Amino acid sequence: MTKIQIVTIATEAGTHFPGQSRAGEAIYEAGIETKLLKSGHEVVATSTLLGRATAVASAAKWQPSPKLDGVRNEQKTLLVLNDVYDELVDCLDTDDGRFILFLGGDCTILQPVLSAAHTILHGKKQPIHDVGLIYMDGDVDLSVPAEAAASIDATGVLDAMTMSHLMRRPGCLSSFSTARCSSRPDGSALVTPQNAVFFAFDPLQPSASHWVYLAENGCKVLSRPTVRADAVAAAKSALSWLESRFDFIVLHFDVDVIDSGEFPLANYPHYAGLAAGEAFAALEVFLGSPKVRAMTITEVNPNNDPERTMVTQVVDAVVQGLKGRK
Predict the structure, then answer these.
(1) CATH code reported for the domain at 2-324
(2) Quick one: pLDDT at residue 3?
(3) Collapsed DSSP state (helix, strand, coil) of residue 154
(4) Which pLDDT band holds residue 64 (cuts at 50, 70, 90)?
């Protein structure tokens, strides 16, 4: 039996379109808690964040915003993420070895999730000083404002800059990279080339400058063609690399890693992704590891799935993966 905590973070402040703030509700409607209990797990706590301050709850809702110096909605997104960090530090508990499931929301939630994890783990009597990351996403999310400002086609949304802020890529927003929601307790970057794997992204998506950054910094990457060739083997390879280094690993799962032609659940379409079965096979490998202690599910837009058939498939894949932890 695995103890599980479910935390809903209903923010869409950093993304393209409205809808993701309802993802947690849709995942509950698809039976996540009931199915986990029926599988023999114990759901020890559930929390819904962003309810403590009216201004923060309002800022978490998507609204049109201009692209200013290559960025949209900077201040409201930062307000939301700092509040999420504060709430997570208050509500998370890792002492009993529980698995923590975070229901987004857009990709920016990963920043306070990692920051809060470091804060909590660093304060233990036997502290864990680093956290591994599996970044399972259709994108590498290494955009920076100058790139977005230079291109009329670039969105300027902050979830496309998530890894830039986590890794402090040159040119990222200092307001984000140094904020409490995006830093270790000592003020350093949350993600480095030594503690993260970029998994299953479309290799044609990153710009040349993104590929240069990945290569020059020695980042561990397994792009979509490698994963499609053998999803289970690729997942085992990524997991083995992290397990040899870390006892606490976070799995970031953005549903846009799945091809939108087959599975159009993601907030923003990607037509060069994994097959759903491939993605779910990789999830089963990752979630079966006792060192994978937390998971974020992001970019689910229930507006794209009125019958909840795709959301249900995601829920079932997560439940199936966690069965291996008994």
Answers:
(1) 3.40.800.10
(2) 95
(3) coil
(4) very high
